[in-house]
């Protein structure tokens, strides 16, 4: 069903309201039969998008409310979260920063609601990676991350006025010798171990 403006060729053009066969609805601007310009799209499952469209795709600035209560407000390119935006997750965590292909990618800040801790730094395909700072209530870690875990040299800075320098080392996985009939147990991911090298007063952090 469609009610609204049409062009000389009979295509939806200008402002209109439509109910789609799947139960979704759209109210907004059209150009030559396609959603184009500002509009609001309501999904039957309770999700809602309000923002810009370009040839039927979310493109430009827009806000998407997901059925689980989470919400993204920011840039879109060809239906993907891409550019800069803020995501409020269903558990109350937030991410503010750069996006590419629907994933956190580039520089961004992730705030953990439960602990108040926040990660400020690089992201690659949704995973924490690159130089970063992990800020807790009374101390912070400055260093690098790889695949979501701290790696290599870094330092902990404590609010009481001292620093602990060191590095994160990936421990070797110990393989147990097993009898042949026993099945291989999946090896648990090994957490990197922090090895302290020195404790100093506060020092400037080289960029």
Automatic annotation (TrEMBL):
Give the start-end ranges of region Disordered.
Answer: 1-23
Q: Does the UniProt entry include the keyword Cytoplasm?
A: yes
Gene Ontology cellular-component annotations: motile cilium; nucleus
* Gene Ontology BP terms: axoneme assembly; meiotic cell cycle; spermatid development
Main location as per UniProt: cytoplasm
Coiled-coil intervals: none
Q: Where is there biased composition of kind Basic and acidic residues?
A: 1-14
Q: Which InterPro entries match?
A: MORN
Highest rank taxon of the organism: Eukaryota
Give compartment(s): Cytoplasm, Cytoskeleton, Flagellum axoneme
Q: What does the record give as the function of this protein?
A: Functions as part of axonemal radial spoke complexes that play an important part in the motility of sperm and cilia.
This chain belongs to the protein called Radial spoke head 1 homolog
Q: Which organism is it from?
A: Atrichornis clamosus
Q: Which gene encodes it?
A: Rsph1
């Amino acid at each position: 069903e469609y009610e609204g403006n049409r062009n000389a060729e009979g295509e939806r053009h200008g402002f209109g309201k439509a109910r789609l066969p799947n139960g979704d609805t759209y109210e907004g601007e059209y150009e030559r039969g396609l959603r184009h310009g500002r509009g609001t799209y309501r999904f039957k499952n309770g999700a809602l998008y309000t923002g810009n469209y370009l040839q039927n795709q979310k493109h430009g600035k827009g806000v998407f409310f997901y059925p689980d209560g989470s919400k993204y407000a920011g840039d879109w390119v060809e239906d993907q979260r891409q550019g800069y935006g803020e995501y409020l997750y269903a558990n109350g965590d937030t991410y503010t920063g750069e996006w590419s292909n629907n994933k956190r990618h580039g520089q961004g800040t992730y705030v953990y609601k439960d602990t108040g801790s926040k990660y400020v730094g690089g992201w690659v395909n949704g995973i924490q990676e690159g130089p970063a700072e992990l800020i807790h209530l009374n101390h912070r870690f400055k260093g690098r991350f790889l695949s979501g875990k701290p790696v290599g040299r870094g330092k902990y800075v404590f609010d009481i006025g001292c620093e602990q320098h060191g590095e994160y080392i990936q421990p070797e996985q110990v393989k147990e010798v097993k009898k042949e009939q026993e099945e291989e147990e999946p090896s648990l991911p090994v957490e990197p171990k922090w090895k302290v090298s020195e404790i100093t007063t506060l020092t400037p952090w080289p960029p």
